[in-house]
Amino acid sequence: MGKRSQFERRKNDAYHTPASVGRSNRGSGKGITFINEVILTDAKECIEWPYYRMDNGYGQVGLHDGMHLAHRVVCEKAHGVPSFPDAQAAHRCGNNSCVNPNHVRWATQAENEEDKRAHGTWEMRMGGAKLSVEIVLDIRSDAAGGASYEALSSRYNTPASTIKKVVRRHTWKHV
Asked: Do 140 and 82 share a structural domain?
């Protein structure tokens, strides 16, 4: 029978049994209506998700079986079910809130990470990161000049364990 899309599985979904019709509005609201309109576009520019966004910028949409990432729903509706396991809906534009079907594609994690590096959003994946590329370079330079982890920890208001990982390239390997 093959792998079916989450949108094609609704027939046996608890929300779609004859007894439950009309009990749930999830999946029939503004978000899914917006997505159904967006997948028909041939726009070149980003289309921002106008509804709920998580702290990292990704939009969420409620479907009958729960909350889903809006760009992933758009990717599946526009491009079909991914043809390989663990596929990620990657943004070509680097804009986490973009739901333009021309800007999202199925990619491996490695391809998605490379896209992030190419458009400069890779560092943002650690939403709580206090360091930047400039600070990391300064830390490494200061450490090479003989500064101790504890001194750097105080200077950059960062735990000494984090400083050590940066200097030894256990983190921030791409810099």
From this structure: no
If one compares 2 and 106, the residue with the highest pLDDT of the two is 106
| Chain-centroid distance, C-alpha 23 | 31
DSSP 39-93: TT---SS--B--S-B-TTS-BEEEETTEEEEHHHHHHHHHH-S-SSTT-EEEESS
Q: Which domain holds residue 67?
A: 9-120
* pTM metric for this prediction: 0.59
pLDDT at 68: 95
Query: Which two tokens mark 15?
Result: 């929300």
Q: What is the DSSP string of 126-148?
A: STT----HHHHHHHHHHHHTT--
Same domain, 82 and 144: no
Same domain, 54 and 110: yes
91/159 same-domain check: no
Number of domains forming the structure of the chain:
2
Q: How confident is the model at residue 18 (pLDDT cuts 50, 70, 90)?
A: very low
Q: Which of 94, 90, 85, 86 is nearest to 74 (CA)?
A: 90
Residue 80: CB partners within 8 Å, gap ≥ 6? 5
Q: Is residue 26 part of a domain?
A: yes
Q: Return the minimum-mean-pLDDT range out of 11-25, 65-79, 105-119, 123-137.
A: 11-25
